[in-house]
Amino acid sequence: MGASYLAVGWNRQKKIYDWFIFAFCALYLTTFIAVTALYNPDYTFETALIRSTATLAILLLHVILSIGPLTRINKKFLPLLYNRRHLGVTMFSVALIHGSFSMLQFHALGNVNPFVSLFTSNTQYNSVSQFPFQALGFFALVIFFLMAITSHDFWLHTLSPKIWKALHMFVYLAYFLVIMHVMLGVVQYETNPVLFVMVLAGAATLVTLHLVAGTKEVRKDNRIFKLKKEGFVYVCESQDVPDNCAKIFCIDKERIALFRFENKLYAIHNVCKHQGGPLGEGQIIDGCITCPWHGYQYLPQNGQSPPPFKEKVSTYIVTVEGSQVWLNPQPLPEGTERSGAAIIIPDKQIIENVQ
Amino acid sequence: MVISIVLILIVTYLACGLLFAIPFVIKGVDKIDEAANGGSIGFRIIIIPGAMVFWPLLLKKWIKQGGHKK
């Protein structure tokens, strides 16, 4: 979040993250090209580069698509989420190198425009073994391009979060195109089944992760809150909410995040104003609820971003009776200040109860 | 033949986008998003490819915002 836009909103953590990505990519490409030169001396540098960037881009794409479900399954993966957009732009850059060198090697040496050649040199669309798989990779690259050029927050505000999110959900179509690009390409060029098996294993892993995370979310959303009293519903015991973290409750189809901060409980709407990130999956950092997706922050007392920022989310009234936490699911206007509900049980006793 | 025509149309569209993007990143962006006021040069450069693609939408917003100012 920033008052005026910068090209990249770097902080120390993000710089470390980016340096790690850069070092990993450089090491991967160098190792791949060196091993290729050693074991397949017949391959040209261009071929080694095309193959190394292809495998690296696919690896990064799998990591990117795994991060969302992994963080829903286990909060320890949250740090990976903070800078996912940089990983996405890196993946696009690597895929662009792969695409550019492929165009140079396969389509730029004749007297036909390379883009025309891409679509006309092979038109066997009704054949599996001869399918023009390069066109699939091209369309996937176009989707990654659109995602990369709209990755800045300016585009989120300009296109609206709904359209921006819808555009970026096309990553799943791009993933499908990439898988088909690889599979149909492997059929035509590869005799070694290792790549084929790796891609299948990657796809199976992604599907499993999404199913597990989705099931967990549905189970959480379907919980029925039976105990009601004067507009309040019983949600949990006070010791169930970890310090500086939250529990998320779905009441009347609205997700509410209940945070514990300095032994008080605060409830706010779970959806971040920036990009719809799940605030309840974030933590309280420097006294602010911090969205796990891009670090947007809100004060627990009033759901407002600290000045000079202007984002606000709805807040809710919470009460604690004994150890029971009661929440009024009727949202207060965005940014409404209310005192937190003090936790009555001493911390020492909470620790004993947990143990 | 069809591919060539489609390519020419895309290139023309992007060329118009580039012509639009230059004044837009200098002046227009500040009109349609207040957070762009005082935005860095890096930010202005980084949005050029997007402006080339989404220029009709940005032009519409720019014109609309200009009308509001009056």
Automatic annotation (TrEMBL), chain A:
Q: Which SUPFAM superfamilies does the record match to this protein?
A: ISP domain
Record domain Rieske: where: 233-327
Q: Which UniProt keywords apply?
A: 2Fe-2S, Iron, Iron-sulfur, Membrane, Metal-binding, Transmembrane, Transmembrane helix
Which cofactors are reported in the record for this sequence? [2Fe-2S] cluster
- Provide a Gene Ontology MF annotation, just one: 2 iron, 2 sulfur cluster binding
Is Lyase among the key words of this record? no
- Domain of life assignment: Bacteria
Give the protein family: Belongs to the bacterial ring-hydroxylating dioxygenase ferredoxin component family.
Q: What is this protein called?
A: (2Fe-2S)-binding protein
Q: Which organism is it from?
A: Niastella vici
TrEMBL record, chain B:
Q: Where are the transmembrane segments?
A: 5-26, 41-59
- Superkingdom, natural source: Bacteria
Q: Which UniProt keywords apply?
A: Membrane, Transmembrane, Transmembrane helix
Q: What is this protein called?
A: DUF5671 domain-containing protein
Lineage of producing organism? Bacteria, Pseudomonadati, Bacteroidota, Chitinophagia, Chitinophagales
